[in-house]
Automatic annotation (TrEMBL):
Record-stated family: Belongs to the cysteine-rich repeat secretory protein family.
UniProt KW keywords: Glycoprotein, Kinase, Receptor, Repeat, Secreted, Signal, Transferase
Organism: Tripterygium wilfordii (Thunder God vine)
One Pfam family from the record: Stress-antifung
Compartment(s) of residence: Secreted
Signal peptide per UniProt: 1-24
InterPro entries tied to this protein: CRR_secretory_protein, GNK2, GNK2_sf
This protein's name: Receptor-like protein kinase-related family protein
PANTHER family: CYSTEINE-RICH REPEAT SECRETORY PROTEIN 38-RELATED (PTHR32411), GNK2-HOMOLOGOUS DOMAIN-CONTAINING PROTEIN (PTHR32411:SF51)
Gnk2-homologous domain ranges (all copies): 26-128, 134-238
Nucleotide-binding found in the keyword field: no
Cellular component annotations (GO), alphabetically ordered: extracellular region
Key word Glycoprotein present: yes
Amino acid sequence: MSPSPSLLSFYLLSFALALQSVFGLDPLFYTCSKSNNFTANGPYESNLNNLMGYLYLKSPSTGFGNGSIGQEPNQVYGLALCRGDASASDCKSCIAQASYDGRQRCPDNRGAAIWYDYCQLKYSDQDFFGQIDDEIKYILYNTQNVSDPLAFNQGTRTLLTNLAEEASLTPKMYSEGEVEFGLEKIYGLAQCTRDLSSYDCKKCLTDIIGEIPSCCDGKKGGRVVTGSCNIRYEMYPFVNA
C-alpha cells in the first residue's frame, strides 16, 4: 500500500502511542532475521515504524491485520494476529508489546517474529503473505504425564484434527473446543494467520499436529507454533469464555 504523507504521520503517531502502553511482558519466543541490517534513521526504519503503527491501529478490531509500506529496496511487510478469543483491548495491548519487543530484541534487523499468549507479530523485507511459514517453529509442553498416554494421545489428536478442519473453513481461521477424557476434559485450539488459503491453513495445522507424538507424547498439555499456524491443548480451560 502507498499511504498519503498525512496518513503516514498518523501511523507514526500511533506507533509512538503504542510504545507508551507496553507492560513489560516477556514473549514466549522470538526470532530475528538473518538478512542484512537496516541503517538507523533511514527509510527502512521509517517504513517499519509506520507499519507498526498501521498494524496497531487496524488489527484489534478483527484480530488480524497485514500490509506493506514503502518501495523496494526499503519496502517492509508485516502482519499481526491475535488469539481468536482475545478482546480488542487485549489484542491492542499485545500488539503494542510485540512492536516494542520486536524492535528491542532485534534492533537493526530487517525482519523479526515474536509470540505471546494473546498475539504474534511478524515483519520482513520479503513478501511472505500467502505462504506457509514452517521454518520458524517453537514447542512448549507440560512436564506432567497422563496415566493413560495411548488413550489420551488418541483423544488429543481427534480433537485437534477436528479443530483444524473447522479453523480452515471459518473466516477467522480459528477454532476452539473440548473432548471428554474419562472424568476430565481435554481443551484445545487451532488457528492460522488469515493471509493463508483454506487449503494451506489446514495443511499447516495438519503438519504441526503430526509433531505431537514426538514432542508431547502423553503430556498433559502442549503447543506447537509456527509463523503461520498454531495448536494448543491442555487439561484445563485456557480460552476466554
